[in-house]
Amino acid sequence: MKELVKNLGSFVTRPKKPSGYAAVLCYHDIVENQYLDYYTTSFQMFIQQILAIQQSSCIVKIDELFIHSYEKTKHKIVLTFDDGLISVAERVAPFLCAKNIPFTIFVQVGTLGYPGFLNPQHVIALSSYPNVEIGSHCLTHRRLSTLSEKEIWSELSRSKEILESITGTKVRYLAYPYGDFDNRVLEIVAGVGYEAAFGTLEARSLIPPKELYNINRLTITAFDTPFSVIKKVTGRYDWVSFFNNR
């Protein structure tokens, strides 16, 4: 009996191992008709990619990246959209919300209301959907590592404050412009009060992530097809993640 209790105690207190991997996909502009721009995806191609993902994977809320579970799901997918472009309101949201598919929008606050970008009314409407998370993509989309500490603090804190004043809800997540940061940025991100931050390292992320302020994402580009997206989310191009998380 004593040996059983001892073994049980070691089981309960031992460090938790990762539940598995999640693929956090990073989209930008979803356009009506494809044109030659690396960070665009045609709407029809986007629909095909989502339908292909749904056949083999589970699209989950961003919060599920941080929930440890002993039940391993083969492929968990998180959808994110950078910059706060108008296509998110016009094309992405109607399609995904109709299918109850969760997604996160990282809003570049300094361009709110500019042509081609969301305005505050869009953000309010989008934040009202239960499956939509609003995050920050800073104020001006500058490379944070090139800025002074005062400028970094302003980029991170002001964008968070403005979005919270617009939505009336806490902004918990950040996406670094260009995936760029340094140690100063990491300290300020934590000090401002973000719960997690996302880069652009082309790899999947552990569940839960090893580093809360540098979570991997996979960029989806104009050259991606449903087949290549499936290869990305299932780890076929995941050598970066393999070497970093061994």
Q: What does this molecule look like?
A:
The protein is an alpha/beta fold. Helix content is 37%, strand content 21%. It contains eight helices and eleven strands. It has helices at 2-13, 43-56, 86-98, 120-127, 149-167, 183-192, 226-233, 239-244, and strands at residues 20-27, 29-31, 40-42, 58-59, 76-83, 103-107, 132-136, 173-175, 196-202, 205-207, 215-219.
Give a topology summary:
Layout: H1 2-13, E1 20-27, E2 29-31, E3 40-42, H2 43-56, E4 58-59, E5 76-83, H3 86-98, E6 103-107, H4 120-127, E7 132-136, H5 149-167, E8 173-175, H6 183-192, E9 196-202, E10 205-207, E11 215-219, H7 226-233, H8 239-244
Parallel strand pairs: 1-5, 1-11, 2-3, 4-5, 5-6, 6-7, 8-9, 9-11
Antiparallel strand pairs: 1-10
Helix pairs in contact: 2-7, 5-6
Output the CATH topology: TIM Barrel
Q: Give the H and E element order.
A: HEEEHEEHEHEHEHEEEHH
> In percent, how helical is the residue content?
25-40%
Distance between the first and last residues' Cα = 36 Å
Taken as a percent bin, the fraction of beta residues is: 15-25%
- Return residue spans where pLDDT drops below 50 for at least 5 consecutive residues: 4-17
Largest sheet: 9 strands, mixed
Q: Report the radius of gyration as a whole number of Å.
A: 19 Å
Structural shape: globular
What's the domain count?
Answer: 1
Q: Which secondary-structure class do the elements indicate?
A: alpha/beta
CATH level-four homologous superfamily name: Glycoside hydrolase/deacetylase
The count of strands amounts to 11
Q: Treating each run of at least 4 consecutive H or I residues as one helix, how many helices?
A: 8
**CATH classification class:** Alpha Beta
In the CATH hierarchy, the architecture is Alpha-Beta Barrel
Q: Mean pLDDT score, rounded?
A: 88
